[in-house]
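Incident log, structure service

09:12 report received: a user says their structure output differs between two submissions of the same chain.
09:20 pulled the input from the user's history:
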Amino acid sequence: MYAKCGCMESARRVFDEGDVGEDVFAWTAMIAGLASHGKCREAIELFDQMQRLGIKPDERTMTAVLLACRNAGWLSEGHAYLKSKQKNYGVWPTIQHYGCVVDLLARVGRLRDAEEFIMKNAHRTGCSSVNFDMGLQTGKWHDKARTRELMNKRGLVKPPGSSKIEIDGKIHEFIVGDSSHPEAEEIYSKLDE
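09:34 re-ran on a clean worker, output below:
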């Protein structure tokens, strides 16, 4: 929670003093928090430590690692993590992983490479939605309807964002647009305060 709010010192203290053990969610949250708040080197160092301890990353961990590479502009490192994730970690690339690489290419000014990457990987995990988003960002509104129609025909859906929090030993997951949580009404009223 501290990491999402940008309180990285508090987040790191809780992480270091807590008994996170092999809790991949805790490791991932800390790596993502560091990456999101400009501490990309620390994020990668923490990922390296996670590996040394034998903790297996999941697809969200790899998204956080690619986020660190993207935010720091580390193109070769980002490509290396993308290529090694399946072999080294047993994690299949997802649309979020491809999206990080496309964004990384665009951030370092390699828009043609980003477009080629999309075309090369469009058949994997629905990279067309990244193409759709990129088209919107570059002002190609006329392609919006055609791309969305193509995505729908292929059954490509970008999964909604989510957050997880542990309270009293129970993990609660909140998915964007989902109000089916048993305490949703109380949660939303608290947020409205």
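09:41 both user submissions now match this output. Likely a transient worker issue. Closing.
09:42 reviewer note: The first strand starts at residue 162 and ends at 167. The chain has a mean pLDDT of 79.
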